[in-house]
Structure formats: structure tokens, C-alpha cells
Amino acid sequence: MDVTDLRTVFHTQDGVVHAVNGISFHxxxxxxxxxxxxxxxxxxxxxxxLLKLLPIPPAxxxxxxxxxxxxxxxxxxxxxxxxxxxxxxxxxxxxxxTSLNPVFNVGFQxxxxxxxxxxxxxxxxxxxxxxxxxxxxxxxAADRLDDFPHQFSGGMRQRVMIAIALACDPQILIADEPxxxxxxxxxxxxxxxxxxxxxxxxxxxxxxxxxxxxxxxxSDRIVVMYGGFVVEHAKVDDLYKRPLHPYTRALLxxxxxxxxxEERLKSIRGTPPNLGAAPTSCPFAPRCEHAFDRCHKExxxxxxxxGVHDVACWWDVEKEAPRxxx
Length: 326
Ligand SMILES: Nc1ncnc2c1ncn2[C@@H]1O[C@H](COP(=O)(O)OP(=O)(O)O)[C@@H](O)[C@H]1O
Ligand SMILES: [Mg+2]
Prior knowledge:
It holds the Pfam family oligo_HPY. Helix 3 crosses helix 4 and helix 4 packs across helix 6. The relative contact order is 0.14. Helices cover 30% and strands 24% of the residues. It is built from ten helices and 14 strands. It has a single domain, classed as 3-Layer(aba) Sandwich (Rossmann fold), CATH 3.40.50.300. The strands form three sheets. An eight-stranded mixed beta sheet has the order 6-7-8-3-9-10-12-11, with helices on both faces. It is of the alpha/beta class and 326 residues long. Strand 13 and strand 14 form a beta hairpin. Magnesium ion binds next to helix 1.
């Protein structure tokens, strides 16, 4: 999948909210890409834009292409896009619109996409639903099809969500903070499950999280978002060994230290940017310890530093000097 120059705004009573400001990234077959950033950085809006799951209006996808299998999802007829949603692209979002429906038993909710997208008969769908529940580690799968969502624990409900997302054997799984609401032990179990499923099924995964620590353990590559922009992009090892954006560095500094010494969970100083105006300066500048005059005047574009390492910053944190003569 190739996303290019995606821009999404919301038209609200208080004016235009610039949620996603021209971001690009690509996803290779079978890889795990994490999208990391603080709450409000535009991660969910980006992912929902890809599949046009936002209410339009107030949302408007102002520009961009999302190429998948040779076609632009943003130009596709709604009917064709519906085939892809939950078919070739499975997704787990936090919002209630795409979560389990309390009124139907989970068997029905898993079997529905199987009948709709794959044309399975009721009997075939039932058999596959049991396989899927077993795949995601739900004990006594066959006996649980008739149970309703409230009869499952939080962790088990999330497993059911994953089973639904995987039902049609997708090429891509988009998982938007699927472990955030769960306690730490269950989170770890879901992460293990995802790693395991990826080995077994080989789909590509876009993993959205505000937690760089979680992303570390599972990703091939990481995209760091800030204020609706991609500010850094690198292979996971490079990002940890050689973070180039002051925001990435700040995120890393908020992680508990590895030697288990003093657990430093400080938050990044300052507040996230106001998205009410299209930025004409670096959105991170007001919070950045390295900001100099250029940062307050011009917004740096994402530029390739080496290999697959990109950063959008006027300051070279390694040389401790401006990256370019201005
Ligand atoms: N329906 C909406 N109307 C107006 N603004 C919205 C709406 N949905 C999201 N936003 C704004 O878009 C920005 C990005 O939100 P989001 O993508 O949910 O962030 P993240 O997922 O990174 O926490 C936020 O500032 C949020 O307030
Ligand atoms: Mg979100």
C-alpha cells in the first residue's frame, strides 16, 4: 500500500481542524509498520481516512492517494471499497462504530463477514468461525459462538475483534491501539498473539500506538507522527540507535530506562499543537529545546538522511548545528 500526500480536515463550528497534513508512507507485503505519536497527533484520522470511514462532512479528505493492489482507495466506488473493508484489509479500531455489537452473539458477528465477503454458507461460516476463535486462543471456541460480548473479559473481547478482522484472510491488518484499554498482562498476551499470527498468516500489519516501547518489540519500521505530520521514519533499530527528531528523542526519554534503574516516566514538556491553522512553522518548535529562528518561520519537509531513514527537522541533533545553510 502506498499513501501519498494524505490531507484530512474537519469543518467544525469553531473553524477548520487540520488533523492530517499531507502525510506519505508505504507498507510492504508482510511487514509490520508501527505508527507512533501522542494522543491527537492524527494516527486514527489517518487510518480511518484510508478506508473512508470518517463521516464526510464534517471530515474532508482534501488531498491524497492510497494505492492498494493497483487502485486508489480514495477514488473507488463505495461498493467496491466495502468489499475491501473487512475483506482484503481487516481493521480493529477503538471507536464504538467498529467494535463488537452488544446485541448480537459473537458467532453471528464473526460469521457475517464470512458470508458477505467470501460467500460461505451458514455451515461453512460456522466451521470457519470456530477455527478463527481457536486461532486467537479462545478456549472452548465451539461453545462460545452463542455468547454475547458482555460474557467475555476485555482481553477475550479484543481476541474476538482480532478474529473478526482476520476472518477473510486479509493482506493488511490495521490495528488502532488495540491493547490500550487492557491491563499490562493482557496487553502482553495480545502482543504475543499478534506476533504469532503474523508468523502463521504472513499479512502486513499497521500497528498504531502512542507507546514507543510497545512498538519496539514488534515492528520492522516505525513512522513517528506529530501534529498531523510524519516527523521521522526509520527501521526500528535505526530509530532507537539513532533518533534524529527531537520529538522522537523526547518520546524515547519518556520510556522507562532499560537497566531497570530509576524509572523515568516523565512527560514531554509543553502541549500538543493547536490544529486550527495550517502550520507555517515547525509544529514542534514551541516545545523543542533545539528550536532556532528558522523553525519558527518554516515547516521542514520530511527528507531522506540515509537508507530508509527520514526526518523533518532543521536541526542536526548529531552535529549540533543547523542541517542546512538557510
Ligand atoms: N470528528 C472530528 N471533528 C473534529 N476534529 C476531530 C474529529 N475527529 C478527530 N478530530 C481531531 O483530529 C486530531 C487528530 O485526532 P486522532 O487522529 O484521533 O489522533 P490520535 O489517534 O493520534 O490520538 C485531533 O486534534 C482531534 O481532535
Ligand atoms: Mg487514536
